[in-house]
Amino acid sequence: MTTTSDAFPIDDRVGAWVPHGRHLRAGAATGPLAGLRFGVKDLFDVAGWPTGAGNPRWLATHPVPGRSSPLVEQLLAAGATCVGKLLTDELAYSIHGDNAHYGTPLNLAAPGRVPGGSSSGSAAAVAARLVDFALGTDTGGSTRVPASYCGLWGLRPTHGLLSQQGLVPLHPGFDTPTWLAHAAPTFARVGAVLLPPAPPRAWRRAQRWQAAWEQADAVFQAPLQAAWQALQDLGLERDTVPADAFAPDAWRQAYVAAGAREAWQAHGAWITGADPGFAPAVAQRFQFASGVTEAQAQAGRSTQTAVRGQLRDLLGSDGVALVPSAASVAPLRTADPAEVDAVRLRTLRITCLAGLAGLPQVSLPCRTPDGLPIGLSLVGPAGSDAALIALAQRLHARLPAALTGGAG
Fold it and tell me: The Amidase domain covers which part of the protein (predicted)?
C-alpha cells in the first residue's frame, strides 16, 4: 500500500521530513520487523518517490527512481512500514545537521542544539519517537555524530558489507549505509535483518586509543572511564595504545584528500552544469574538492592503506577499541561558525579512524551530568558488526544509570 502527503500519518513537529518525502509504503503483513515504522534519509532511492539529496537542484535535475535501494526492500519485506524521506545535509557533505534550503531539524534530546548530520532528519525523527528507526549513511561520521548528539544507537558497518545500490554517493570508498534507533532491542532487530549471518565472536581484548580520547571534551572522560571499567568487568583484558602511536590530524587530512577527490569525480560535472546553490560551507568543501589532484588523492590513499593495516593489526580478530563517538556535545544552533568548524575538525580526527580502516563502529547512548546526550563507541574487526552490537549492548547494560538515563 502506498499513500501520498494527503494522508501522511505523522505530525512532523521537528522538521525532519523533506517536503517531497511525505509518503507511506506499508511493509509485509508479517515478519521480524512487523509493526515498526522507519524513515529513509533522502539519499536512498525508493521506487516512485523522488530522491533529493538535500538540494532542490538535485531534486529538479534527477528522475524519479524506478527501483528501490535493496536495503529498503529488505526492510519492507521484513514487515516494517516506510514513512517517507528524511532530511540530509546537502549531498551529505557535513556532520553538523543544518540545511540552507530545508532548515535544521529540531533535536528534542538536546533542545536548542543541532541534531548533527548529515543524517540529520533520521536522527531527529528517531529522537522524537516519530519513527522506530531510520536509515542513514556514514562517510566521515554522518551517523556516529548524530547518534552522539541525539542519544541514539547507531552503527557504521564494515565498509562494503551493506549494499550501496540506489544510494547517492559522496565518497564511495568511505560511504556506508546505516541505521539509527532509540531502543536497543529495535536496533538489534534491524541489524538481524540487514546484516549477513555471522558466527559468534569471542571477545578477549579491549583497547583505549588514547589519541582519540584526547580529541574529546572533558565531559566525555568520566563516561569513557566507566565504560573502560565495565569492559574489564565483562572479562576483557585491557591495554592502552599511546597517543604517539597515532597521527590524528595527518590521518584526517588523508581522509579529506582521498574523499574529496572521489566527491568531485562523482559530482563535479553536475555541480559545474547545474549551479546547485550550495550553502557556503558545502560550497567551500566542493570548491576544495575540485582542486585536489590525483597525486594528492593517491598520497591520501597510501596513508589510508598504512592506517588500515595498523588498526586492523591492533584489533586482530578478538579485540575492540573504546573511543568517543564525537568530540563534543551537540553545538548550539546559534554557535559561531568558527566554533562549529573547530569541533568538526576534532571530531573528524576521531571518526576518520574507522573510516580509513573500513571497520565497524557502534555508538551507544550516554549522557552528561547536565543530561545532554553523548555517544561512546566500540570499534571492532572487519565483519564483526553483529557481534559488536551484542557486546555494545552488554556494555551499555553495565554502565551506571546516571550515565545512561535508562536509555536502551
Answer: 25-388
Residue 317 predicted with pLDDT over 80: yes
Q: Is the pLDDT of residue 191 over 60?
A: yes
- Strand boundaries in 78-142, DSSP class E: 81-86, 133-138
300/104 Cα distance (integer angstroms): 32
Annotation marks residue 142 as catalytic: yes
The structural domains of the chain, ordered by start, are 1-237+308-408 (3.90.1300.10)
The pLDDT of residue 354 is 98
Residue 379 has pLDDT above 70, yes or no: yes
Residue 2 has pLDDT above 70, yes or no: no
Residue 8's SS3 state is coil
CA dihedral (328, 14, 109, 42) positive or negative: negative
Query: DSSP secondary-structure letter at 140?
Result: S
Pick the catalytic residue from 69, 118, 119, 148.
118
pLDDT at 6 over 80: no
Element (H, E) at 393: helix 385-398
What is the Cα–Cα distance from 186 to 197, expressed in whole angstroms? 18
Task: Tell me if residue 345 falls in helix, strand or coil.
Answer: helix
pLDDT score recorded for residue 23: 94
User: Which one of the listed residues 41, 68, 85, 325 is annotated catalytic?
Assistant: 41
**Whole-model pTM?**
0.96
Element (H, E) at 288: helix 280-290
Q: Virtual CA dihedral for 147, 149, 152, 157, nearest 10 degrees?
A: 10
41 is catalytic: yes
Q: Which of 122, 142, 148, 377 is catalytic?
A: 142
Residue 397's SS3 state is helix
